[in-house]
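Structure ticket #2291
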Amino acid sequence: MMPEPPSPAWTAPSGLTIPDALPVLPLGGGTVVFPLAVVPLVVGQPRSIRLIDDAMRQQRLVTLVMQRNEEVESAGPEHLYRVGTVGLIHQLVRAPDGTLRLIVQGLQRVRLLDFVTTEPYLVARIQRAPEQAMPGVETEGLRRAVLDLFRRLVAVTDGLSEEVAAAAERFADPLQVVYLIASVAPLPGPARQEILELDAVDAKLRRLIELLQHELAVRELGRKIIAETNEQLSKTQREYFLREQLRAIQRELGEGEEPAEITEIRRQIAEAGLPPEASREAERELNRLSTLSPASPEYGIARTYLEWLASLPWNRESGGEIDVQRARQVLDEDHYDLEKIKERILDYLAVKKLREMRRAPSAGPTDQSDSSGPSAAAGEPAREPILCFVGPPGVGKTSLGQSIARALGRAFVRMSLGGVHDEAEIRGHRRTYIGAMPGRIIQGIRRAERKDPVFMLDEIDKLGADWRGDPAAALLEVLDPTQNSSFVDTYLGVPFDLSRVLFITTANTLDTVPPPLLDRMEILQLSGYTDDEKVQIARRYLIPKELAAHGLTPTELTIDDDALRWIIRRYTREAGVRGLEREIATICRKVARGIADGRTEPVHVDVERVSSYLGRPRYSEEIGGRTERPGVATGLAWTPTGGEVLFVEAAMMPSREERLILTGMLGDIMRESAQAALTWVRSNAEALGIDPALFAGKAVHLHVPAGAVPKDGPSAGITMATALASLATGRPTRSDVAMTGEITLRGKVLPVGGIKEKVLAAHRAGITTVILPRENEPDLDDLPPDLRGEITFVLVDTVEEVIHRALVPPADATATPDRSAADIVGPVATTER
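Resolution: structure written out below.
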């Protein structure tokens, strides 16, 4: 729509006649005067004051236009917008400083066409610019949207009152609503000018909605930020200011009271009974803590450190009178057999009790000692033994530690070392790190709340090492009785006495334990159990435990000894009793399910009923079938999980070159033993009745099942020689014979280790005769008497004796050469040794 042509004069809505030329008053400070609005103005420039004086002498009308650049003091035509408002001066007050205070009412929106004069002030020809209003539903919707946004803006703006929002809602004319809200809302000057210059009322409403939405979002975000900041101030800085004021008041009054939190920590440290060095360190940290602000990160670090110092049992011990007989009763209640372990613990208790009795009359120092001889009772500090239980899984190493703690009346702490790679797990972290804590040794001591617990380091053979350090090296100080009385955790930084702690370590094998660490421990071997021992363990411990765990009573389920032996031989075949415990638990679950289904009669499990609960047997008597043909011999091996029965199979075939083929994942030592065995058999072929030309142009193949299991060690030497001799002579080995021993090229049989585990494995497999090196005869004393009565032990010095005893006699032989009683240790010879 084209603007109307200029007219000489026109009448405003108020009834006043407006001429076509009026003086122009530039407005700074982002001020925009809208039509129908009443605003106060301050005029201070000389030419503006003259403009007002001249206007007051005529019709009191001026054209109010905002400056484009507020920094210009005397604005010219180029500094003004081209749309303004004709205003009527209602009131004028001359201030003492020479400025004029005006009350002006906007009358009509106008456009500046050209300037008639610029001196002494601006005079311009103007043109009326009425707004274009198109009443309708859309306009009404825009008006209500503007009112809603303005109401929300009033709620979050301190300078706006609810009366203004109520006044805007009373206007039905959208143009009046736009100009009122635009004049009072906190909008920038250019935005107000933009609204004034828009012709259509709908366009003014839409632009005002955009501006109000932006301002509302900024205000709400600002209120949220202020609220969060105030909350933080109220929790941290406010407390800090109050504490500083309190300290200032205390200084003025001459009072030096420290905060209650520091006073409480000081009291706890005093009650903890710290040694002198730790006490001095705690005092230094307390003094530093009192100078720190609670808002400082250092404050939390120092407070946590002091809490650790105060919570450790520096001088708290279990105490109590030592009762050796009760200790023996507790150990017998919890574990069957293990006499050597029990005797060692009872010896320790007896020495400890004797020292306390000898020390009491002298009323000397409070230290104790576990050394032999009464002369050291008064001067030598207490030294607890470092025990290491070594044995296959499931033999009771960990549970034995719990029983020892119960027998001693001490707290029990267990720390698993399996997979530990970081030295800081043992020694702790430096306090400079975020979240630093003491090592797991000190943490365990604090959990025990006593300085003399039974501390079990489980799976010490499974420690690791990487770029973070070697935990085994850190344990050297912990497990050294001459050093651990002043163990320094990296976090604490002060010595802590670990000499009163009874450390017990466990391992499946000692091969992976570093020698320096091994040298600090007393090794106690826990071998596997015989079938009879497993039956007794099941009868005394496992069955009652599983019955209680499954909600059964002893009358609802009974298992006879023959059924237990059947389970042991055909379903488990292990050194320990974990598998046996799982099988008993399976039977208990099925019986409990039957009772839950309504069955009321008691259940008695015998050999015939075992398969109905456990399924078909997992193991069978396979020894006889494996050794029926020549070239197969039965050997015995030691593994970290106990003894095992292994077979050595030999075969011979034509070949372009004579060679030895070895399969079965054999290690270097075992491969060398195979070469030594073949060399001995070939060099002694005539003595063994073998044609020396038998091996000519042949390849000899030795295989040791199972092929997926790595094997190594020298103890299969005589087994390999026997298998080769069996193959060459055509005489099979006896199915009831197993053997172990190292071979030399001269045919000597050397001693090997793990005799008890190997014999137990032979017994589990149904072997009745075991061939051993003569130098291993003392190891037979470690075997249970019942086991020695069931197995015949043949002690040998040479491989010829092994082959003579292991191979089936020739078909034409009428008798077997006599063996002296010294060579055979069996059910009869056992009592003669």
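Closing remark: Residues 201-253 form the longest helix (53 residues).
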